[in-house]
Design brief:
Radius of gyration: 19 Å
Distance between the termini: 38 Å
Largest sheet: 6 strands, mixed
Helix content: 40-55%
Mean pLDDT: 92
Strand content: 15-25%
Strand order of the largest sheet: 1-3-2-4-11-5
Number of domains: 2
Number of strands: 11
Shape: globular
CATH architecture of the largest domain: 3-Layer(aba) Sandwich
Low-confidence stretches: 1-27
CATH topology of the largest domain: D-Maltodextrin-Binding Protein, domain 2
Length: 332
């Protein structure tokens, strides 16, 4: 809640700096749709595949994509009309709703349906058990963020109190967590891809568990827009969602090697073989949603995880912040 208030108090100069400058696809007779993504991640492969395969162009959309690098900046961009659509964690829509927003942010299409982080051990183990973490030093994610909430939720599911049974470190900036572990901090670390795979390939760590598999289905990353946008630009949002669905189906049908070759240009600093490994890992555990429909069960699981971590400002009914009509029309 405190973080959300900081978003809403950002000065106008910062809001203007956050306006998308991104890359565009298509031609002059297409409608421009501005999308702000929370970060650039192989976790979002179906979006990049839809772009690379030309599905947005087929739907008459010239997509302008910008990376906001953070949930707060992404939501600020959307709320200030710097973007038409945001790709960010569904929990942010709850934070905005709890502030009694006159034009709430509505989730209309799912992209990922599990957590995307992995537990990496400094030392190899033939048979990992969660109680191995008792008494260890655990390098977690930022307090209040969805990765940390999921991490703590999973630990509790395995009978571990993250604030009593181990030494929890969560005061390191997101961008420095991997380097802190590589330099010797922590016995275990919670990492996103591709860092987890890179560490394993380089012998710096060993992936021993998946937080995505352990925490179940959750609307981890979704496309959302203001309620007014969904009402006034329904046809555009439908075309956007149809293009996304084509990308989701394509990713579901193709091999990791083909997917990686299609999206590798979005990750200039990551070798294609690493992209392939990451895509395969996410596909195997069902992280990529195969259609845009966000389920009630996933929504409830999200709020359970938030509540367990003390970060749920209020319970919000599924119907209040999830629009299923667009996804349902696409799936017919």
């Amino acid at each position: 809640m405190k973080q959300l208030k900081r978003w809403l108090l950002l000065p106008l100069s910062m809001i203007l700096l956050l306006a998308p400058l991104g890359c565009s696809f298509g031609n002059d007779d297409q409608e421009t749709v501005r999308v702000a993504e929370v970060t650039r991640s192989i976790f979002y492969a179906p979006l990049y595949a839809a772009m690379a395969q030309g599905y947005f162009s087929e739907e008459g959309i010239e997509l302008e994509l910008t990376t906001a690098w953070g949930g707060d900046k992404t939501m600020t961009t959307l709320l200030s009309d710097g973007a038409d659509i945001a790709l960010v964690g569904a929990e942010t829509s709850i934070y905005v709703y709890a502030q009694n927003a006159s034009d709430p942010v509505i989730n209309f299409a799912a992209l990922t349906q599990t957590d995307g982080t992995f537990l990496v051990s400094r030392t190899p183990t033939d048979e990992f058990r969660w109680d191995n973490l008792n008494g260890s030093t655990f390098l977690g994610q930022r307090k209040g963020g969805m990765p940390q909430m999921v991490g703590e939720h999973v630990l509790r599911q395995h009978g571990i109190d993250p604030h009593k049974d181990l030494k929890l470190i969560q005061n390191i900036d997101f961008g420095n967590i991997a380097s802190a572990f590589a330099s010797g901090t922590g016995d275990y670390v919670q990492l996103f891809e591709p860092q987890a795979t890179l560490f394993e390939n380089e012998g710096l760590g060993h992936i021993v568990a998946s937080f995505g598999e352990e925490s179940g289905e959750v609307p981890y990353t979704v496309f959302m827009a203001k309620e007014s946008t969904l009402k006034n630009d329904t046809e555009t949002i439908e075309r956007f969602t149809r293009a996304l669905y084509k990308g989701q189906q394509w990713v579901d049908e193709q091999s990791p090697e083909i997917i990686a070759a299609s999206i590798v240009t979005f990750f200039e600093d990551t070798p294609v073989d690493v992209v392939t490994q990451v895509v395969e890992r996410y596909k195997d555990q069902g992280s990529y949603a195969t259609d845009p429909l966000l389920s009630p069960g996933a929504w409830d699981n999200l709020q359970t995880i938030m509540d367990d971590s003390g970060e749920l400002p209020q319970y919000v009914d599924y119907e209040a912040l999830v629009n299923t009509s667009i996804a349902e029309s696409i799936l017919k």
